[in-house]
Amino acid sequence: MISHHHVTGRSTRAGHKRMASLALLLAGTVPVAAMAQEPVATTTATLAADKPGPVMHPDVFGQFAEHLGHGIYGGIWVGRGSRIPNDGGYRSDVLAALKAINVPMVRWPGGCFADEYHWRDGIGPASKRPTKVNTNWGGVNEDNSFGTHEYFGLMDRLGGSTYVSANVGSGTPAETSQWVEYMTAPKGTTVLAKERERNGHPAPWKVRYLGIGNELWGCGGNMRAEYAADLTNRYAQFAKSANGPMLKIASGPSDSNYDWTDAMMRIAGKNIDGLALHYYTRPRDKDWNDKGPALGFPEREWASTMAHTLMMDEFITKHAAIMDKYDAAKRVMLAVDEWGTWYDPTPGSNPGFLEQQNSLRDAVVAGLNINIFAHHADRVRMAAIAQMVNVLQAMLLTDGARMVKTPTYWVFDLYKPWQGATTLPVTLTSPYYHKDEFALPAVSASAVRDTAGQVHVALVNLDPNRAMPVTLSLAGLQATQASGRIVTATTMDAHNSFAAPDTVTPQPFTAAQVAGGTLSTTVPAKSVLVLDLR
Description:
Layout: H1 4-7, H2 14-20, H3 32-35, E1 43-48, E2 62-64, E3 86-87, E4 90-91, H4 92-100, E5 105-108, E6 132-133, E7 141-142, H5 148-158, E8 161-166, H6 173-184, H7 191-198, E9 209-212, H8 225-238, E10 247-250, H9 258-268, E11 274-281, H10 299-326, E12 333-341, H11 360-375, E13 382-386, E14 396-399, E15 402-405, H12 407-414, E16 422-424, E17 426-429, E18 432-435, E19 438-441, E20 443-449, E21 455-461, E22 468-475, E23 482-487, E24 507-509, E25 512-515, E26 518-523, E27 527-533
Parallel strand pairs: 1-22, 2-5, 2-13, 5-8, 8-9, 9-10, 10-11, 11-12, 12-13
Antiparallel strand pairs: 1-17, 3-4, 6-7, 14-15, 16-20, 18-19, 20-21, 21-27, 22-26, 23-24, 23-27, 25-26
Helix pairs in contact: 6-7, 8-9, 9-10, 10-11, 11-12
């Protein structure tokens, strides 16, 4: 998680300077003046079902839960004595909602919080755990009642992969090594394994991913890339799982910091399994204290949000090219383990809690990002949206005993077939959406063949005003029917509230035809559509 305290100067980097030149936001686009002459046309595309691509790893649909605001306390964890219905202290409604979208992985405990977190503070009887101040997020007390055992209890209930972020910024290699031993050592084998047993869990846990620090260029220590890479080698050497393979994820770059990627891959590439990329979409990207509101925004900020979201493709492409220099076999994954929208906090809320509403705009952003990840499935094999509950681009919002599913949640529901599916190449020519100085391809697409053999196509129309006709040639695929579900609404900032929880929900979509090897449909304005081909 990018802390406000460490990023102010980063908005002046070359990547953000490029964003200021909005006519060239997308790699390979022609000047706005030329595109303005383009007539409105049908989006034409080809799906090459006979040329399958890489599998899209389920963990690309991962989540992020930091000790931040009400992300954990009140969002996931209410404690065993709560009047809110719970399963061993975990909110029953939240658990059911997360299971319904097959949450495959959750990253914890941060974020900036991770590099001030000492794991021993979060084990043993809750009444004896020390209370600290969360200096990154709101200056509130952290009572450590949600610690290692509680995190793994959550993952036992969700059935997903575990991703634990180690403290590099204020910790030591020994502390991380001991934490990994505590989590993974077989029952009765070591002093730490026996301590884990006394604390109520005799069997070892499986740590799928270990994050070696977080944003070491910023809130994780304000380090130079070369120094951070040396530290990464040191931590990777001594963090050893005793319960199966553990993939080690290095602290990678923010947006266009390509020098960081080069240094980390050159110095530490052989000792890591992944490099973390962080990138947040902001409507106004000049000042972290003026990002724009989550609701009630003008169309220009819809357009700027979409333009900045589409930069994700350029960032992944260029970071992956640098990684290819040192890792042509693509052994090291690019883990986009923080992504999503970041707006000004909800008026009246603690600004350090990063609370914001979630609208149809966020749903479209989610669809665009998932399509981009599908196009880079060879290198992007894990990701985590920020964050899971009550923080930034959340799946769920809670207030006391109430819970609401956001438009972003429903997009993740639409894309469930993409988890573990084989990607299918889609080539596409789209009309442009124009607003002020922005000119963006209006339609984004991806396609997969799921584990049962069925083909699914996602079409995202980011134009908030115009429906887009689409014709999709189906190469190497015998299909006669297409139907699915769509997420859309009448206004750009339509959202689900506790008073009106179903304003934006998936609706059946039957206005697609398949004939002569071609799928034809019209994608409504500002929508995310997923079609199932039969």
